[in-house]
């Protein structure tokens, strides 16, 4: 439980003069210092209620320690990471500006109530070319968080790199995703990034078929719930009425509230503080978050049965890697989008609700909380563990699943150390019901029929750095 000690040390370091800290550090079992915090507070955070639009936060944990269980060693890690925190895409940006314009064109000279901050606030959306790009300033900046995640994974998985091999890093061919992969790679490899990481860009084109980090499913176009969900939420009407009544002359509606909440979540990606967050109540944030949960659930998750087959591309290939073990490679870092991760998570089932999410009420608790699953910089990690015998489990190979650094027990069997699942049980469980991507999604025979870039990658470092300025607005794939 080193984590508890180091937090205590940091708190003491901040509070005490250097000489006192030296004394405390020499005697960590003082009467006043607590090894473990007794606070869990209420567990509420707005960071869990904006779906995939705002900064990363750690996954809600089940009380399972993140560090490798005693007696086990990780011998292979397979991760898929969403791009880092970013500016809004051109479409949502334009909606945000429309709603802002409505507010400013009301000619109110002094904003009041929940909008008082608007008397001094300035927009962060002025530069169109930054639309969709990674953010780079403030505590939640995307290029900072991906870099930080790289350094954390270096600390955690340092033994998986032999210090000399060239290690591929896989990224789908979208500007912000590529930049995230590079930034993570620089965090992980540090001085060795330019020589020992090899960025492999996997095209997002559908002609990649199953050999892709972003497999598509054409059969998927007509989900009725994938449209505009703003009108479903009475909370947005209440918020509009409140802000209008506080500011005579203002005439925003529920759609504007949705756009402004979206703008608030994104503001945190760019700035360390968003006054817009406080313009809305916690109930309104929960409602906003639920609109996002519905979108992911029905459009890119388990509410759309075809999506299990999409998730199967990655899950099936990862089973092959896990069964081959470290002889096929120890480090597999992959970068793509939120909607490429939710089908994988949906197939594995851990967060799936017992019944389809309702459109006329907000369930509580709602396990399919996308602010907890795919915040910006969200990631899903599979660890292959080789373990010695413990009092409860024989020696063997196990698997642990980790979502945003919270260990997720695999439903079928958690009999291994640290609630891990025996590899053979994990494989047979998933192989039994594995949906067929090629059949389900009518993938043409001329396209690749399974994922094999993990075995056939390039070791060239020529794509490790951006050559020249990034393209204006991230609307097109790069390769
Ligand atoms: C497993 O046991 C062996 C023999 O005692 C020991 O050398 C090794 O370090 C152990 N592995 C782990 C991961 O603890
Ligand atoms: C705000 O002022 C502008 C310029 O005077 C005017 O054209 C516009 O109609 C006013 N808007 C409202 C809502 O009064
Ligand atoms: C990694 O970087 C360090 C520091 O620059 C250097 O000493 C070492 O030789 C590098 N390793 C390789 C394989 O290039
Ligand atoms: C809100 O107003 C915009 C026009 O500014 C309109 O397009 C939208 O449909 C309205 N939303 C609602 C819920 O009435
Ligand atoms: C699963 O992966 C293996 C090898 O990685 C491949 O041969 C097989 O075709 C894949 N199956 C499906 C259904 O994708
Ligand atoms: C989990 O798998 C192990 C190894 O196959 C087995 O011994 C154990 O009984 C299983 N536990 C459950 C709850 O199925
Ligand atoms: C490796 O490079 C070749 C030649 O540029 C390219 O055709 C292939 O798609 C690359 N493979 C990967 C996995 O990036």
UniProtKB/TrEMBL annotation:
Cellular component GO terms held in the UniProt record: fungal-type cell wall
Catalytic class of the enzyme: hydrolase
Disulfide bond positions: 72-387
Highest taxon in the source lineage: Eukaryota
Any Pfam family the entry gives: His_Phos_2
Signal peptide feature range: 1-20
Keywords per UniProt: Disulfide bond, Glycoprotein, Hydrolase, Signal
InterPro entries per the UniProt record, alphabetical: Acid_Pase_AS, His_Pase_clade-2, His_PPase_superfam, Histidine_acid_Pase_euk
Sequence similarity: Belongs to the histidine acid phosphatase family.
Name assigned to this protein: 3-phytase
Source species: Oidiodendron maius (strain Zn)
